[in-house]
Amino acid sequence: MIEIINLCKSFEDHLVLNNLNLNIKKGETMVIIGRSGCGKSVLLKHIIGIMKPDSGQVIIDGVDIAQLEQKGLNDFRMKFGMLFQGAALFDSLNIGENVGFALYEHTNLSKQDIEKRINECLAHVGLYGIEHLKPAELSGGMRKRVGLARAIAVNPEIIMYDEPTTGVDPIMGDSVNDLIISLHDKLNVTSIAVTHDMVSAYKIADRIAMLYEGKIIGVGTPDEIKNTKDPVVKQFITGAAIGPITDKKP
Amino acid sequence: MFLNKDNTSHEKKKELKLFGEKFREIEAWPGAIGEKFVDGVRYIGGACILLAQTIFWLFITPLKKKQVLDQMDKIGVNSLPIVLLTSFFTGMVLALQSAYQMQRMSAEMYIASLVSLSIVRELGPVLTALVIAGRVGAAITAELGTMRVTEQIDALEALATNPVKYLVVPRFLALVIMLPLLTVYADIMGILGGYVIGVFKLGIGSNMYWKMTYDPLVFKDIFTGLIKSLAFGIIISIVACFQGMNTEGGAEGVGKATTIAVVVSFIMIIAADCFITALFYFAFRV
Q: What is the ipTM of this complex?
């Protein structure tokens, strides 16, 4: 269970998160939508503790992670897996070393057990046998899938996806959506995805929340969001160029 | 003749407006200087915090020997050719330049002493550090900067790994170990360069040249040279890693960060050299 309470974050004079409140239930897939640059990735980084808020709380299973020291935070992070927007694979390591990174660094498993786990994770994402390649030798879609394999290697309870379908073609994007659904069903994890791809959002989400001007302005099931009366949410999900979002005076 | 009051007041308003703009420009100068000063203090503070964190992780957690050895290979072994060329030619140039004056005073045999003292006390440590700052410091900043802008450092944190422990400590240790060793190597090559000119061009006897090379050298000369190289290793590693890990702005940002890292390293190496020389040769006279 994740509770975000009155979260505030500014960068210099720019207020990105403005008393944001959101609850995410255990086992659900929550998709956070919003315009580019509205703070979706910043929100994700607060949930995993990479950023500290100016004020507010991020409570995960009863623990406010914003107050944790480094060691406690690292222990908590082993419950998470995160797929970054560009996959963020380590260029100096091969695919096998990337996928097994957390296992090599933080567990006492034998090399054989880790390699077995690496193969399992790569097989999950349909990339069995590429562990000796380097990230630079892969396409964008393959890198995303390797990023996903790395995220699930530690058997996380919560997986986060930062723009999972951005930068890949529509067919690959749908494969990524299917992977997200399949991982959610097989591993019984809580999933949090941020995206502005509404096709992806409707397909994978149990609930959708819209982030606008630093706050969550609407939360609901995909059907509820599709039929929303809120003009801001309506403009975003329909992709209309004219509406309250774009009519706003600077 | 009548004064056109409207024109006069209009011109006066224009003058006042121009004066106001000029005044604001002048007023902004102390603000800009103050801002630069604050940025500089913030930079030094951030680098000192990174140094403290690096030393903390160095002594608290077990070392990853493979990572340190990899970095030592990249930093030390791969720099041997460029250090050889730089120091050998520096030794040759020193001998040539000093020969021009020494021959007038029939004091050619002292060329060897001049070369050895200059190389061991100053040019060996400083030139080696500058070469390594340009070669290795820039590479470290570019690598860590690219990792920062492609979220690889965020990914490290998401995988419960401290970036200072994983990225900075191996590079810091490798530079602190390899730079003094490279300095010793540079000293030998520089003296050899002087030997080539002294013996084969200037006709100084080989035995005489070696005698005049090591006779004036005392332990303090070698020791201060190595202390300098240790300090320079700390400077290059911390500046390069700090600049890399704080890179912003994509590929352009990586380019800027690399340039700043090299420039700041150069300035701090020269400043540290001056400070250490004053400390050992004036404050602690032995």
A: 0.89
